[in-house]
């Protein structure tokens, strides 16, 4: 496949999880990929495994963004795609969430992409245009309990997507957002470990682990009764990064097994058991 042949892409948070899946799919599609993450050991391993490059980057550090873009300009001479995938999750009831935790989440999940877009725009423009792919969440569309910071950050990222699309269409730059209904269990378990006592019953964490490990699968809560995989979300990023989506900007693609289609309730005897 060569859907991304000749394109140079930065993928933040590409060391593991959905980001690593995006890196793999991009390389498979012919792109040259630079993983930018804070998980250096894991990032190096993923880079070797996927035939991509790794650079340390804290997405909240504006100077580091500028240095990364300078590096990409000097080594590759161009940039075609920026994937803002890096994020953190904080699970806690709103009344227990400190302003420090709220701020920490917004810094990574919203200000990080803002800084990345700002730093990458000059090189994207010099390259004749490009595609910015933000990775949001179903929490960019609706809320989930105990995610006041995370849901706020992901709604804001969806808003940022629209503004970038409007302001930079004139530069042949498109900006879209993928909204996964699922991702790596590591993100959820790390958040749960941080504030587990405040999270109601730990149901979401149990579900993440049981489904990812292939153990007992809980009752379906969505029409497509399985957990989304990195590959499900990565192919949406490939589409938005490729020229196939050249008329597509400022839009969101929700990939959640139909979770947001409407009420998923049984009407006994009429359809669920048919
Ligand atoms: N895990 C889920 O259930 C879920 C659900 C919906 C959407 N998402 C979204 O999918 C995307 C990928 O998440 P994931 O599920 O693969 O989780 P993950 O925790 O496995 O991956 C996130 C990556 O971001 C990196 N990162 C965190 N802070 C960073 C920083 N300051 N600078 C640079 N890199 C940083 C991490 O090191 C990690 O490699 C995220 O945007 C997340 O919000 C995840």
UniProtKB/TrEMBL annotation:
Pfam families xref list: adh_short_C2
GO molecular function: oxidoreductase activity
Any one of the GO BP annotations: lipid metabolic process
Swiss-Prot/TrEMBL keywords: Lipid metabolism, NAD, Oxidoreductase
Family designation: Belongs to the short-chain dehydrogenases/reductases (SDR) family.
Name under which the protein is recorded: Unannotated protein
């Amino acid at each position: 496949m060569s859907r991304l042949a000749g394109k140079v892409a930065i993928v933040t948070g590409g060391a593991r999880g959905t980001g690593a899946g995006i890196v793999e799919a991009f390389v498979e599609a012919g792109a040259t990929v630079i993983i930018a993450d804070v998980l250096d050991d894991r990032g190096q391993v993923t880079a070797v495994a996927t035939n991509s490059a790794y650079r340390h980057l804290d997405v909240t550090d504006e100077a580091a963004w500028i240095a990364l873009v300078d590096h990409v300009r000097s080594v590759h001479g161009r940039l075609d795609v920026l994937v803002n995938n890096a994020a953190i999750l904080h699970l806690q009831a709103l009344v227990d969430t400190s302003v420090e935790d709220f701020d920490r989440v917004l810094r990574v999940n919203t200000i990080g992409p803002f800084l990345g877009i700002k730093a990458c725009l000059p090189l994207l423009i010099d390259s004749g245009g490009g595609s910015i792919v933000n990775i949001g969440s179903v929490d960019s569309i609706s809320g989930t309990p105990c995610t006041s910071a995370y849901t706020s950050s992901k709604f804001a990222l969806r808003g940022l997507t629209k503004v970038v699309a409007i302001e930079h269409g004139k530069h042949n730059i498109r900006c879209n957002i993928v909204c996964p209904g699922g991702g790596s269990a590591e993100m959820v378990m790390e958040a749960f470990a941080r504030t587990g006592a405040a999270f109601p019953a730990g149901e979401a964490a149990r579900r993440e682990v049981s489904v990812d490990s292939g153990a007992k699968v809980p009752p379906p809560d969505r029409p497509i009764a399985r957990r989304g995989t990195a590959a499900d979300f990565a192919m949406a990023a490939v589409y938005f990064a490729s020229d196939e989506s050249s008329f597509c900007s400022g839009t969101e693609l929700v990939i959640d097994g139909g979770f947001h289609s409407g009420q998923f309730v049984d009407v006994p005897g009429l359809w669920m058991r048919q």
